[in-house]
Input
Amino acid sequence: MLQTRNHTPFEAMMVPLPDQNGIDSVVTMIKGTFKFSNNKVSIAPLQKKIRLTDVFYGDPQTTSIKYASDISLPKIATDVVVTGSAYAPKGEPYYEFPVSLSLKREKHGKEEILVEKVLQIFGDREWEGIKPVITKSKTKPLTKMPLIYENAYGGTVFNPKDSTEYQNEPRNPVGKGFYYKKWLPKSDSPELPNIEDPDNLITKYGKQPERIQPAGFGYIAPHWQQRVQYAGTYDDNWKKTRAPYLAKDFSPKFLNTAHPDLIMKGYLKGGEVVSLQGLHPDGDFTFTLPTIKIRVEYYIDGKTILNVAPIDTLFFEPDENELTYIWRSSETCDKKTLKVAKAEVHVESSDINLELA
Output
């Protein structure tokens, strides 16, 4: 039962999961790791294992996600995620500099932008002065900045008279720069974020508008507002009528773990051109993503069902010169989970050599 016969050089795993309607299904994750350089992508000699749980930088309540779990129902669009650092040009100290990620493809002879995001990186700064004249301090130069949400706009502040009472930025409770007027000036953070959206910079103390979004390339935690708003309602009625299945108003948008600006409209196909700028100490990279089609054959209750798995996660670790694809396939097996004999995973086609050294 639930055997996965993997005929690819990648990691593969099949698990039983009820879908959002509570119907039994089997989901197969295929994880492929690749090395990249300028104008070249090749299969990595060491393939990374399928990750079973989210991995945070520390306490899940006070830090951000470093790696999201690979176990999930199918996503409705491809997540594009980067874990790593921003590097100043030529390794020299800068007060601020931009980094960027873009994903483009040719369509009908024209360049189509699928994903494009720029971050402005600042050295450490803080608010200084006495009200009403509060200004930004001088920016300290830097050569490297971890691209984590702890360095982006957000944060949590506590009531100075009652440490159990707090307010936070629900889109990024682990960041810096968030304030709560009622508790000013004792409990506000004098720090400014190191990572900002260049089109919506924080310009004046106490005037952070709603349009300022936490900026980053990393994973969004499931309890942050960007995702939890899609999780559904789990109240007494849910306990009586649907538990342990997903809520009736659950949206599959919850399953996407990337920053909202880095969720594609549809799925990655392969053949897209990637540009990574300021994300590696050796400079910038441009390369074309491989086009690899994965086929999954399910054997359920004596029947063979063919399924093509889309790529629903594209993950970059520039410090390692690595990128990862997650292909994901699912098939309904309502009340027949015990009759799922196996899933066979094949590479249907590839435009790069997949032989491991």
Summary: The chain has a mean pLDDT of 92.
